[in-house]
DNA sequence: CACAATTATGAGCAATTATTCGCTTCTCGC
DNA sequence: GCGAGAAGCGAATAATTGCTCATAATTGTG
């Protein structure tokens, strides 16, 4: 399955109008199939069946299964970026708390549609180089944007805006996803308020005395668990 | 594959001493195979090969692939609970900030071993009823414990300790995992400090004026995106 | 040592699945 | 309405994989 390189362009560029329609049909069907069965069990035949087309046709538009998921992921991310940009244009000048709230809200919106599908996307990301690359790039740009925001806002009092940026971006993305996808989902309005509050207080509260760690220590000092890695894990072979 | 009920007990109770050894061999091999290839591509034959036993033997101890992952998950969770309990016995009486730090640290420790494997566990959880149940129970107990802690500590100033408990439990679990498993991992000590700070400030800062939402509104008021669920997603068939 | 119970083996079965390709059907400019 | 290329079809293929079972090795006991 994960055998190195892989064609990602469709075998045939669409030339007629109905083609574009088909692409959308396939994507819609794939979204539902992946959401319901997961990636591994979401077979191309099932996707074709749900889209009311034949497998052969499916492979006319996407060279393989991976390419379908990749396009799904790309579209989701593009939608997220677009939504964020749209919202932030209205609020960028406001106080930090407002900007954060906009961020949180945009993320919630982006996840409300289809948490299941999103779950599958995130699952599969680490296994496909193309996907991994796409997701990593997106994540990186979001962190960069957040860092910029923090640097620009004078109310921000954290020691290290890079770490803080990564922390808040991950927090929003992950927590929103998990708590919305949960079988017993939290009440959205309150959740939005609390998450925003958490991030805002964190960013604007000055360090008690000197929360700043030494930070110059070159050697990796470890405050927790020292030397008992259960085994030589991680990739090898 | 996901065909309803499923035997989860091994086909044969071990009666000799070497049996216990085999179980451990299998588990170790499975952990590595799953971590490296993921669940779907982590074949039982590969596990057996790495464990230097035959597939047949593997199936003498575990009735199927799922059961192997289930035991892996169970062990990981038990280890986490045990570690948390051990640590908290030493610190439970301290100020909130200290307790939180202990929590964060315990979680970090628990994830440092093998982030990849953990990733696979979390991925697979939603697809296997038995796994899902196990994970849900664990999550619930952690939230309950956190709520208790918040209720007991007077410094805590949030409006709704239930929501706050869910928020912080999810945050710690998810963010620790993501930022440790990242290709460019954050510096652990600083990360621990920042995450602890974020949670502590959130919990102890009183609501600006009245951060409390109305909370009595029976109708689901929606602060964000109203009515445009892209499609009828979720299970059908 | 013998022999019965327990445990280990691994070739192979049955099922699943991504992908192909020879063929039919449709589209549209003439 | 013709015909050539575009689009669509789906049975067949090749590969993979979870798991079984007939057989062999190992163990402990008298």
UniProtKB/TrEMBL annotation, chains A, B:
Residues 20-80 form the HTH tetR-type domain. Residues 43-62 bind DNA. Residues 203-237 are annotated as: Disordered. It holds the Pfam family TetR_N. It comes from Amycolatopsis samaneae. This is TetR/AcrR family transcriptional regulator. Keywords: DNA-binding, Transcription, Transcription regulation. Residues 213-223 have a biased composition (Polar residues). Transmembrane segments: none annotated.
């Amino acid at each position: 399955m994960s055998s190195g390189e892989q064609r990602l362009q469709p075998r045939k560029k669409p030339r007629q109008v109905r083609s574009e329609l088909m692409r959308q049909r396939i994507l819609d069907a794939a979204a539902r199939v992946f959401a319901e069965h997961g990636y591994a069990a979401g077979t191309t035949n099932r996707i074709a069946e749900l889209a009311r087309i034949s497998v052969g046709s499916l492979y006319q538009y996407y060279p393989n299964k991976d390419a379908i998921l990749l396009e799904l992921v790309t579209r989701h991310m593009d939608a997220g970026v677009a939504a964020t940009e749209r919202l932030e244009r209205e609020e960028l000048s406001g106080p930090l708390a407002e900007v954060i709230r906009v961020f949180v809200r945009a993320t919630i919106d982006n996840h409300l549609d289809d948490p299941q599908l999103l779950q599958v996307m995130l699952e599969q990301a680490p296994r496909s180089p193309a996907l991994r690359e796409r997701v990593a790039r997106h994540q990186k740009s979001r962190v960069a944007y957040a860092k910029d925001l923090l640097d620009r806002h004078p109310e921000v009092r954290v020691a290290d805006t890079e770490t803080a940026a990564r922390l808040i971006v991950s927090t929003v993305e992950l927590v929103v996803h998990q708590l919305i996808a949960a079988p017993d989902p939290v009440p959205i309005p309150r959740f939005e308020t609390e998450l925003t509050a958490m991030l805002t207080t964190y960013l604007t509260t000055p360090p008690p005395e000197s929360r700043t760690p030494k930070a110059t220590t070159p050697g990796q000092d470890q405050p927790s668990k020292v030397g008992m890695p259960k085994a030589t894990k991680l990739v090898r072979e």
